[in-house]
Amino acid sequence: RPRSHTVTTTSSSFTANLSASSSTLAYDREFLRTLPGLLMVIEIVLGLLVWTLIAGTEYFLYPAFGWVMFVAVFYWVLTVFFLIIYMTMTYTRIPQVPWTSMGLCFNGSAFVLYLIAAIVDASSVTKELDSHNYNSWAASSFFAFVVTSCYAGNTYFSFISWRSRTLQ
């Protein structure tokens, strides 16, 4: 006697939501043409310079340069992460996150910690420490201050955005 095979399929709201949210991500080409987008690209490029100039030396012998490395690498990774979020417009798909507040906190903390790291970097550069690494450390100090000013600019733009969001 042949057996009857019955297959029943059901669709849950989870799979419906998953299929709706897995569509292609948008790409915001105009973001890099804005001043905050341009500042982010400069932060990434010059932040990379800061930590590669230090990483190419014997920085591990001096704790101050370890701190500068930590701040530079930490904020470099996070800035790349935020640039991807803004470029792919992922923030529009996660409305539960207060993106304007998060941007303000991120840029504000980056500005403060990069300022401290740049001051520590500049004050630690002396010819007596190691003349072989002097030029790399001096250059990293210069670029750390430039990156600090970029984060200050983005903090300002984040504050303006946050302020206009809270007034509505």
Automatic annotation (TrEMBL):
It is found in: Membrane. GO terms for cellular component: membrane. Its main location: membrane. The chain crosses the membrane at residues 35-54, 60-87, 99-120, 140-162. It comes from the Eukaryota. Residues 31-163 form the MARVEL domain. One of its GO terms (biological process) is myelination. It is a multi-pass membrane protein. InterPro entries: MAL (IPR013295), Marvel (IPR008253), MARVEL-CKLF_proteins (IPR050578). GO terms for molecular function: structural constituent of myelin sheath. Keywords: Membrane, Transmembrane, Transmembrane helix. Pfam families: MARVEL (PF01284). This is CKLF8 protein. It comes from Probosciger aterrimus (Palm cockatoo). The lineage of its organism: Eukaryota, Metazoa, Chordata, Craniata, Vertebrata.
